[in-house]
Structure formats: C-alpha cells, structure tokens
Amino acid sequence: MSTAGPPSAPAPTVVLGVSGSIAAFKAVEVARHFVRAGVRVLPAMTAAARQFVGPATLAGLTGERVAGDMFEPGLAGEIHVALARAADVVVLCPATADLLADLAAGHATDVVRAVALCTSRPIVVAPAMHPAMWAHPATQRNVRTLLADGRCRFVGPVEGEVASGETGLGRMAEPLDVADVVLGLLRQGARRDLEGVRLLVTAGPTVEDLDPVRFLSNRSSGTMGFAVAECAALRGARVTLVAGPVGLPTPTGVTRHDVRSALELDAVLGALLGADLSGADALVMVAAVADYRPAERAAQKLKRSGAPLTLTLEPNPDILAGLGAVRRGGRPLLVGFALETASGPELEAIARAKLAHKRVDLVVANGVATLEQPESSDVVLVDEAASVPLGRLGKRDLADRILDWVAVRCRS
Ligand code: C5P
Q: For 152, which of 29, 179, 250, 342 is 20 to 30 Å away at the CA?
C-alpha cells in the first residue's frame, strides 16, 4: 500500500489474531495480502488455532514471532500490552463463536483475547463457523453487543459452503475482502492530519414529541455524521458526537452524547462549546434538525375523534445560524449540510446562499438522491472561494473529503 509520510515513517501494523476454526488456513492468505501491501503483521494464535495451522507458516510469511503464550518464560513485559500498543488495527481472522462470546463478555484468557480487550484501535472481525452457530441467539446477541460497543467492524460471514459440506451463512469472508477493509482503515489511519483537532459532529434526525407516543421527525439515518466522526477519529481528531435517536454503534475513540429534540441538541452543543464557543476547533453539523416542533406537547395521548385535527407548530432555532451569528475570529470552523431537491447550478446557488445566510465556512450540498440511494449522492462543496463538485460519493469517501478541507483550514 502507499503510505503517506517520510520514508522513515513506521510501517502500518496489524495484529492478526487467529482462532481455532478450519478457516484458520485462510488467515495465511490474509497475512500474505498485508505483507504484499507493505504492512507489518504481528501474528497471535490461540491454542486451538495451532491445531489447524502451524505457527511456522505465519512466522515464515510475516518474519515475526507468533505470540501465543502470555506466560512465555524470558518475555520482558506483557506481550498483549505490547501488541495492543503496536497495532494500528487488530484483525481477528477467523473469529470463532467462542471468541465472539469472550469478546462480548470481556474475557482475556489468552493472548488473542487479551489484545482485543487491551487495544483502543479498530478491531476487524471475520467470523467463521457453522451456520447454526452463527444463527444461534447467543451468537447474535454477542454480535449485537460488540456492534453496540463500537470497537468491532464485522466482515462477513458470507453464504456458502462451510467445513461440514453444508451451505449457509457462516463461511468466512474471502481473504481479499477482509484485507481490503483493513487496508482501507490503515490508509485513513496513516493520515494523522487531524491530530489534536477538537471536532464536534452532530448526526441523525431530531425527534419532536407531540404526545407520549407520537412525534414529528425525518428520515435521517445518522450514517453520514457517524462516518464523519469515525473517519475524523481515525485521522487523530478528538471527536465528540452529538447524535439524535439512531441505532448506530459509537465509532471507536469517539465520545458520544445522545439527544432527542432540536432544543436538546441546541442545549448540549451550547454546553460543549461554551459561551465563547472555545470548546471545539470545528463543528460539522450533519444533523437533520427539525425546523418545527409542536407548540405544545400533550401530557396524555391525544384521543382520536371524527373532527379534523389542527396542529400548531413553532419554529426551532436555527442552531448553526445562531452559532454563525455569535462567532468571532473564525473559530470554531463551521460546516453545514444542505439536502436539497435541486441539482446542478441551482443546488450550488442554494448552498452559496446558505453559506452567507448562516455565516458558515463550508456548506456540503447533497442532491436529494441521498434519500433514494443512501450509499451515494451528488455532492458539491461550497466555501467562500470556490464550489467543488464531487459527483457521486459513498459516505465514507465524502466524510474524508470534508475532513481534508477541515484539516487544511485548521492549519491556516
Ligand atoms: O436550512 P437547512 O435546514 O437546509 O440547513 C441545514 C444545515 O443547518 C445543517 O447543517 C443543519 O444541521 C443545520 N440546521 C440547524 N438548525 C436548524 C435547521 C438546520 O443547525 N433548525
């Protein structure tokens, strides 16, 4: 892989934790992809994994000793701590049902489990097991726990033939697919250009309650804001994420505050930024803040009747414009989003008007295709100097383009 930085920069490093599945032989191919890409691979194997693949294979391929015994005589210091510190990404490949259960419970009974518990870096997990084990409620519960903890990213399992000869969902993802996800994370992590930048990100919808069971909201999934938060943390930023109600796991290394309504979002941002707005270097305001809220929130459930119902709505504060109005001296940098049904020059004109009206530094304008095709959208970045059409981009790529802009502006 191409690594940014001077030639003396240390090679990106993965700890490859192998657990005891017949798919363990595939870890060898994953290691080979890493080595070819110039990545340093520090292998660690569970006792069961050694029943399937010889440590000599991984040692020979990677040029590193294979960690296995936490209590090996003659080892200085704690091997799992050293490995966790060295890793840019920890890869658990293959990951058995038992390993997932231990990770979810926080067990550290061998070196692979201990590294996973000790690291603060992303963990890529490639499960491999019989489909019945994958589908078991206990395994699914463990996967949900791990996703909610926000440390693990799963690659697979996939549908296909498993060791027993049966077919189902449980087969390990292809080694190249596992390696691609890890190399992508390393590429982002190699760019530590936001080191120390205090970044505040808002994400998701706001929910405006009508009564104890009904509300007004919008379709925002939160994935764009979470992608910005995750990519920024990988690039070294100190990220605080303020999220409306979404079912997404907190990205690794990100501090999260959950809010519900626009007024709550406003209050939390106010507390985090402080009266002089000195609490962050940049704010990326991705949240789809509801423009209106019910003038009254009924204490009891509104009763159905045959008569038409008229709701009175009152405007929410424009949080971003409010910050733009009180900001002095260009900090924090303010980035707004504009989701519009317009496209082309009209979209750009709307974004430019928003830039001026809200007194922000960058507006990320999305064509409304985002709603229909959640994974890609027509995007233009508009700042005071230029408009940069980006075409259709996935959310993570768009997050990185926005952060490129933030990184440059933070230095100027
Ligand atoms: O005006 P419009 O809703 O299109 O502006 C979108 C941008 O303004 C987004 O960055 C959004 O987070 C922010 N916004 C806000 N407060 C509102 C409405 C939108 O901060 N009440």
A: 29
CATH 3.40.50.1950 domain position(s) in the chain: 13-189
27 lines ligand 1 (CB under 6 A): no
Per-residue pLDDT of the chain (412 residues; tens, 9 = 90+): 433 333 345 688 999 999 999 999 999 999 999 999 999 999 999 999 999 999 999 999 999 999 987 777 655 568 898 898 889 999 999 999 999 999 999 999 999 999 999 998 889 999 999 999 999 999 999 999 998 887 899 999 999 888 888 888 999 999 999 999 999 888 877 677 898 999 999 999 999 999 999 999 999 999 999 999 999 998 889 999 999 999 998 888 899 999 999 999 999 999 999 999 999 999 999 999 999 999 999 999 999 999 999 999 999 999 999 999 999 999 999 999 999 888 888 999 999 999 999 999 999 998 875 444 554 458 999 999 999 988 888 888 899 899 999 999 998 7
Residue span(s) of the chain under CATH 3.40.50.10300 come to: 192-411
Would the CB of 291 count as within 6 Å of ligand 1? yes
C-alpha pair distances (Å), 305 with each of 117, 212, 288, 302 = 56, 18, 32, 9
Active site residue 316: no
Q: Provide the CATH number for the domain formed by 13-189 in this structure.
A: 3.40.50.1950
Correct CATH for 192-411 of 3.40.718.10, 3.50.50.60, 3.40.50.10300, 3.40.109.10: 3.40.50.10300
Ligand 1 centre to CA of 249 (Å) is: 24
CA-proximal residue: ligand 1, atom 4 (nearest): 338
Tokens of 383: 């700042």
Query: Could you give the count of Cα atoms lying within 13 Å of 134 in the half-sphere of its Cβ?
Result: 19
In Å, what is the CA distance from 100 to each residue of 77, 127, 160, 353?
27, 8, 21, 50
Residue nearest to atom 17 of ligand 1 (CA): 318
From 142, 218, 316, 366, the catalytic residue? 218
